[in-house]
Amino acid sequence: MKNLKMLSAVALAAALSFSLHASRAHAMDLQHARAQKDLSPALQRSLQDKLSDVAEPYFSEQDEKKAKGQQYIDLQQKFEYLPTYGPHNHLVVSCKLGGVEYDPAKPGTAKGLATGKLKYLVFTYALDGKQWVSVAKPKWESQNLGVAGAKQLNQNLARGEQRKAAMEKAAQNRAAASAAAAAAQKAADRSGQ
């Protein structure tokens, strides 16, 4: 019985000790509420509006390189947002716009041959009130996938082009069949009159 009372007292002391520490930790979290990790849709839209004007010259530059037969980056139209929150929930966002580097001088696909490099253009903006302010000049980052990566990129691009061509041909065949069916129906309607 004495052991049971001792064990109960130890368990009660541990429970009280844990609850005191837990409530202090919980109270501290409430004092320093964590910022949300993702951008809200409204913030994404406002940042996208800002970036669309800033990024346009880079798209044009890559199109010019492609037209001249120089290595170019096939920049995707969608940004990746990497928000970070500093003291007092100061929001800074790195906006990545990336794509595969191609060499149009080397045949292989309609875009040219992939070099095995992925390149990213990084824009850094901070939210100041309700306005996005540039924090740093845009900079290029690169990731080299090597020869095996280049081979895989080229195979995937060729397969994608084949799939796209097959889908376009199927759509043309459906459109032709639909037009033929409409013409046959029209002819049948005329003969029935």
Q: Topology of this structure?
A:
Blueprint: H1 2-31, H2 41-67, E1 72-75, E2 80-85, E3 91-103, E4 113-128, E5 131-144, H3 146-192
Number of E-type strands? 5
H/E series: HHEEEEEH
Low-confidence stretches: 20-35
Q: Could you say which structural class the secondary elements and strand pairing correspond to? A: alpha+beta
General form = extended
Query: What gyration radius follows from the Cα positions, in whole Å?
Result: 30 Å
Our measurement of the CA-to-CA distance between the termini, rounded to an integer number of angstroms, reads 107 Å
Tally the helices: what do you get?
3
> What is the mean pLDDT?
80
Beta-strand proportion:
25-35%
Largest sheet: 5 strands, antiparallel
Helix content: 40-55%
State the gist of this model:
This protein is an alpha+beta fold and 193 residues long. It has three helices and five strands, in the order ααβββββα. Strands 1, 2, 3, 4 and 5 form a five-stranded antiparallel sheet that branches.
3D architecture notes:
The chain has 193 residues and is an alpha+beta fold. It contains 3 helices and 5 strands, in the order H-H-E-E-E-E-E-H. It has helices spanning 2-31, 41-67, 146-192, and strands at 72-75, 80-85, 91-103, 113-128, 131-144. Strands 1, 2, 3, 4 and 5 form a 5-stranded antiparallel sheet that branches. Strand 4 (113-128) and strand 5 (131-144) form a beta hairpin. The model is unreliable at 20-35 (pLDDT under 50).
